[in-house]
Amino acid sequence: MEKIQDTFDPKPRKFIVWLFVVSSSIMFGGFTSYYLVFAASKGKGHGLVLPDAFIYSSLVIIASSITLFLAAKALRKLNFSLQRNLLWVTVILAIAFGVMQFNAWGSMVRTGATLVGNNAAISFIYVVSGMHLLHIIAGVGLIINALAGSYKSLPVAKVQYRMQIASIFWHFIDILWIYLYVFLLLNR
Amino acid sequence: MSEHTHTTEEHGHDDHAGLSKGKIWKVFGILLLITVIEFIIALVLIPKGYMTQHIGNYVYIVLTLLKAFYIVAYFMHLKYEKLGLQLALTVSFIFIIYFIVLMLTEGGFLNIHMMNH
Amino acid sequence: MSTIALHDEHNHDHADHGHHKETLISKYIFSMDHKMIAKQFLITGIIMAVIAMGLSILFRIQLAWPDQNFPFLETFLGKWAEGGRIKPDFYLALVTIHGTIMVFFVLTAGLSGTFSNLLIPLQIGARDMASPFLNMLSYWFFFMACVIMMSSFFIQTGPASGGWTVYPPLSVVAKAMPGSGLGMTLWLVSMVLFVASSLMGGINYVSTVLNMRTKGMDLWKMPLTIWAFFLTAILGILSFPVLVAGVVLMVFDRSFGTSFYLSDIVMGTDILPNEGGSPILWQHLFWFLGHPEVYIVIMPALGISSEVISVNSRKPIFGYHAMVYSLIGITVLSFIVWGHHMFVTGMNPLLGGVFMITTLIIAVPSAVKTFNYLATLWRGNIRFTPAMLFAIGLVSFFISGGLTGIFLGNASLDINLHDTYFVVAHFHLVMGSAAIFGMLAGVYHWFPKMFGRMMNAKLGYLHFWLTFIAAYLVFFPLHFLGLDGVPRRYYAFTEFEFMKKWLTVNVFVTWAAIMAALAQVAFLFNFFYSIFKGKVSPQNPWEANTLEWTAPVEHLHGNWPGEIPTVYRWPYDYSKPGHDADFIPQTVPFSQTMSSNLPHDFEGNEEAEKIQQDWELANPVAENKG
Amino acid sequence: QDAAGAAAAPKVDMGEVYKSVIFYILVFLAVCLFIAIIGKAIKVYELSREAQGKPVGINWNRVHASLFALFLVIGLYGVYWEYTVHGSMLLPDAASEHGKKIDKMFNLTLIITTIVFVVTHILLFGFSYIYKYSAKRKAYYYPHNNTIEKIWTIIPALVLTVLVLMGFLTWRSIFFKVEDPNHKPLQIEVTSEQFKWSIRYPGADGIVGNKNYKLTTATNPLGIDFKDINSRDDEMADEMVIPVGKPVKLILTSKDVIHSFYMPHFRVQLNTVPGMRVFFEFTPTKTTAEMQQETNDPNFKYLFFCAKICGSGHYNMQKVVRVVSEAEYKTWIAEQKTYLNDDLRKQFNLPVAPAAVKSVADSAAKDSAAVKTNQMALNK
Ligand code: HEA
Ligand code: HEA
Ligand code: CUA
Ligand SMILES: [Cu+2]
Questions:
Q1: Between vectors from CA C468 to CA C466 and to CA C471, what angle results, nearest 5°?
Q2: What's the sign of the alpha-carbon dihedral C151, C152, C153, C156?
């Protein structure tokens, strides 16, 4: 009975992340279907011109996806220092994204489109962007986890595994945000 | 255990078959053709009154679905994926359409029955 | 001591378990071993079941004797039963918490949590779950959810009392009833934790089933239990998040003053500012989860009973493929029928028609399952172990309750049946009885696997017969109340002349319920006594084929000492002609059972067929099998 | 589990309470003891059989098989008993046109399900009895039979198709009525609130006027908008009186939470939802007097009540419905007061003297408008 000790198999765990992505999408599916029925029942949606900050934050989050992609590429070439630097950039971009979301909320509040009001479609913008921001926080956690793995010089397989789950999740929330933004744009 | 169901295990090998250069161009041509037809409808048929806007909308939807099918099937490789995945994606796609139709009908109903001020 | 010996040499397939030292805490409390987590789920589930059952007895007492005082109620309910009579608000709280606990904590966490955790790794041949850590987290979230839910009994305004479906505005507007204050907040918090727990569990189960099966265990060799748990988990992953979406919006309505579900509300003369939302939207979001939820509740029970019936009839389950396809059919269909709870709630009647069609279609896969169970019993050699008794009970309840579902599924009949006791009777038969029986069958069947000891069979018999009879006595008559137009969630039937004739029935039902509850004492005693004092179990007490019985009785981290066994055949080769024993475990290769192999066993593998033919030519005796 | 308020219970004589509780516990313990003794006796019996080398004492498989057979017989009788005894205590036949269709549908479903119920249970318990364990027999290895499986997929599917089709037609005939402009239904608005109902009759113009919840005050509890001419002649009523044989269109709304307007004798139920107006149209076919004769109960009353959980008073939200002849209805409705009273007139800046009676042409125009809105509503 020989030790098969560390045949580290990341596949089932990566699959777990995918399943989480699925269930998360379903949750946002639930939100958007609420919105669809609500808007149809009113004959109109939120009726706002979305704040510009949302455009910038979308650009930022796309950029962060790109840096993360490059980081993964660097890791594949075993260039750890480049990977770390790119991950740090990603984290900074993520934080910038969060700041911009707050900014966007601020400018919405200034135009009078507040969270509490009798247009649930406007409240909805706050709720979905807020729930998305929670995902961003979780995503940053995963990136930091990948960073930590890289610094701790774990076995390469594990560093790569951490990197992979961070990537899966981060690209997902990137796409998710684009989806939400386009959805809100289209369903004015 | 009669119906021998190997669907889950086999078909792995033709995963990467197909999608030669020629095929790509062919699919691209089809997509282009559909787009051209759409443009013709939008720019010629409807303004000239050969087709009403109403029917036009339906034709659009059908053509777009067709396009989506080609894109998903060939460019996104679904045509070469396992049967299970194909089924799952098709079923979810049908479901999503079904749900959207349901939601819009329900929204329309609420629109009439809610007291709007 | 053999445990220790085995422990040292067993190998880890998974990482993150470098350290071995097991302290008391890491073994019994923050355990990451799926078997221990299963036990934790089971025992928590049983405790919650007992609590919820107690609640049901309390409100049954109120229903049976609405104008009688029971001073002892005041003794331990205090201000909620002043003068020994339960107050209307508290009655509703009891019903709400009873429903919530039973559906979510007992039959979702308790049933799926226990048996998915125990059986998925053991029956597919894996060392543990895909992520043992997530698995542990799943239990502790569930535990916290239970604690928070129970804590609402100790607050001033009492627990949530808007029904387990918590329809707004009742549950959102704090002024609408006392339970909609803090109690409802706790309910929502508990629910969020619970959903998180279910999702972590479900994701883990799906990933494990898809990725960690042992050699030879292809999908069509999995026992039906695994199929059921797998599809249940998928159902959960796809529907629970929608509830989260709904709950988040509800939290915003309650705590921040948004108007997602509220519009045009006047409490007395107090005009609320909310405008534009619709309570119907909550109902859609809730039932989009809520309906799949009822199948989340029944499918594991159906899986368990398939296994138990097959083992104890000493016969392969009839129509294995049909059983799987019908489970898949139920899974898929269950997403498109949620509106049958909303036929008369102000939903578009057009959709009512659509939902009626989809709802009644579900009866077809259910019919296939039912008839396949019957066909499995036919010409079997039935051993009535306690588990088998409960499985047969399940089939009976599932038929009875399912058939009443056919009435409700018919939108035009539902007009008069909606929210009456007919609905109560329906779902207690199919959920409160069938699913609970499935769970009990599972406990009796896999107790030896969980605790290494046997439960006392005779107490099991007593438990079964009392519960079986009492459950029918409780729930069958309730249909007739519903047909007479008696609504559910009524505190007392005394205000209506026409309901008074049902009071005697109510008394009868309550006595039957008390009998059912007391019968559970036999179970509880048996369960806890046997954990410590039961007869030590042999390795394969039921002579079953599935993989878990090839693992040693002693629990070890990693399940099997040495290599995980390879699987060669489906799990249902019972009483195969030509074989001397009446069962052939999945781990026995066909080469060892030449005398009993059938052509289709080889699934078109020509080489194997050839070998078999040669063997049969050489051993002509084997021909007279059949 | 609720020790919370236990302290606040001084009045009752606790001694008595404890005594009775202890008594019941003792009874229960005695029963347990009895069961334990029986259990031991069985065990001793079995052990002694074993010691004598005879086959094991009790053949439990046979016991359970017989019990199942017994359960089948007694159970089927019990079902029969329930159908006849409790079945005779149910609602009388439907008192509305669409209700008769529902009853027909119900009976069809009942027949089909009863047949399925009886047959499957005979098979289930019958097989359990016949095929109980025997050491001499081996079970029949029979893993599948595609033909049989197809048959029992297709037959239920066919039966259900019948049920679906008939149910669908019934449903459609209830909720998608084609309105006959010459036979306009009587509009009645019902508003629910915790825990009572308010009924509003349309008055002479046949239209119930607008409402706006923002207008709700103590004097105008329904928030009726009296700026709307149609509201001014709306009448209030303590009970719902409707003429037999004439279609009634209920307009259901709610002030606070969801309630359900449930009128079982007419097979009518629809939730009342705040912020929404929903409609249910039905035609009563039996007057209260006829029903009193039919049920042999001189006190018989039609009721409507609340079927959706709505708070502590949910169990007592009822109102009487009286179905009367056309003539009786006319005299009754003439006696009802309007919602608009002098206080409200002042509030809405209306002249305190009764408003001039509208011209005939005016009301006719209103009527056709009403028909139009109805149709729109029914179209979807
Ligand atoms: C385990 C849980 C469970 C299961 C399995 C089911 C199964 C079914 N349920 Fe039930 N249901 C609930 C739990 C469950 N239900 C709960 C909890 C509620 C109430 C929630 C609340 O409001 O609080 C509810 C409420 C409910 C309603 C809403 C009632 C109302 O509020 O007005 C409806 C309406 O359509 C319905 C229908 C059905 C149907 C058609 C099935 C079918 O799946 C049944 C299929 C099975 C069979 C039909 C029997 C076997 C088949 C045969 C023997 C074949 C031959 C049969 C024929 C040819 C007819 N259920
Ligand atoms: C699984 C679900 C379940 C179960 C088991 C039960 C069990 C019981 N239920 Fe309950 N009930 C619900 C789910 C359930 N109920 C729901 C969802 C509602 C709706 C709530 C709402 O309206 O919001 C409801 C409502 C409800 C009502 C309607 C109240 C009303 O509308 O006013 C009534 C009335 O009699 C009732 C009675 C009972 C009784 C007497 C029992 C039992 O006491 C019957 C006797 C006991 C048993 C048959 C065995 C129990 C088994 C164990 C304790 C062992 C557990 C074993 C393991 C964990 C291995 N229940
Ligand atoms: Cu009003 Cu229940
Ligand atoms: Cu349902």
A1: 100
A2: positive
Contact (CB<8Å) A9/C260: no
CB of C402 closer than 6 A to ligand 1?
A: yes
3-state secondary structure of C266: strand
Interstrand relation of D259-263 and D235-237 (parallel, antiparallel or unpaired): unpaired
| Count of alpha carbons within 13 angstroms of residue B45, beta-carbon side | 17
Q: Which residues of C549-574 are buried (b: 16+ CB within 10 A; e: fewer)?
A: bbbebebbbbbbbeebbebbbbbbbb
Lowest mean pLDDT among B52-56, C120-124, D136-140: B52-56
- Angle at the Cα of C508 (from C503 to C509), degrees rounded to 5? 95
For chain D, count helices (H), then strands (E): 9, 10
- Residue C342 Cα to ligand 4 midpoint, Å, equals 10
Q: Atom 40 (ligand 1): residue with closest C-alpha?
A: C405
Intra-chain end-to-end CA distance of chain D, in Å:
51
Cβ of D159 below 6 Å from ligand 1: yes
- Residues around the ion ligand 4 (C-beta < 5 A): C 291
Across the interface, of D211, D213, D380, the residue whose CB is closest to B112 is D380
- On the question of pLDDT at D100 being above 50, the answer is yes
ipTM of the complex: 0.87
Residue of C nearest to D22 (CA): C72
Indicate the residue of B108, B115, B117 with minimum beta-carbon distance to D380: B108
Which residue has 């040693």 as its token pair? C552
For D7, the token pair is 């302290």
CB-based contact C131 A34, cutoff 8 Å? no
Hey, is the C-beta of B105 within 8 angstroms of any chain D C-beta? Answer: yes
Element housing C58 (H / E):
helix C34-64
pLDDT at D271: 94
Testing ligand 2's pocket by substitution, the residue of C43, C102, C166 carrying the most ligand atoms inside 8 A of its CB is C102
What pLDDT was estimated at residue B13?
38
Q: Is C431 in the pocket of ligand 1 (CB under 6 A)?
A: yes
Q: Does B92 touch chain A (CB under 8 A)?
A: no
Phi-psi region of A74 (alpha: psi -120 to 50; beta: other; left: phi over 0): alpha
Distance from C-alpha of C58 to C-alpha of D2, rounded to nearest angstrom: 12
Task: Average the pLDDT over D201-222 and give the result.
Answer: 86
Cβ <8 Å between C206 and A19: yes
Which residue from D minimizes the CA distance to C179?
D311
Q: Is C399 in the pocket of ligand 1 (CB under 6 A)?
A: yes
| Amino acid of residue C475 | F
Instruction: Return the pLDDT at D365.
Output: 43
pLDDT at D189 over 60: yes
The chain C residue lying nearest A158, using CA atoms, is: C15
Compute the distance between CA of residue D166 and CA of residue D178 in angstroms, rounded to an integer: 19
DSSP per position, C285-335: HHHHHHHHHHHHHHHHHHHHHHHHHHHHHTSPPTTHHHHHHHHHHHHHHGG
User: Rounded to a whole number, what is the distance in angstroms from the first to the last CA of chain B?
Assistant: 64
Q: Quote the pLDDT of residue C19.
A: 45
Question: Are B66 and B34 a contacting pair, CB within 8 Å?
Answer: yes
- When comparing pLDDT for C16 and B69, which is higher? B69
Rounded distance, CA C117 to CA C129, Å?
8
Angstrom distance (rounded) from CA C153 to CA C159 = 5
| Gap from B2 CA to chain A (nearest CA, Å) | 31
User: Distance, in angstroms, between D370 CA and closest chain B CA?
Assistant: 15
Mean pLDDT by 10 residues, chain C (626 residues): 35 42 68 90 95 93 85 74 82 94 93 93 90 91 95 89 91 88 92 94 92 88 93 93 92 89 86 86 91 93 95 92 93 91 90 91 92 92 94 95 94 93 95 94 94 92 95 94 93 88 92 93 94 90 91 85 87 86 86 80 77 80 48
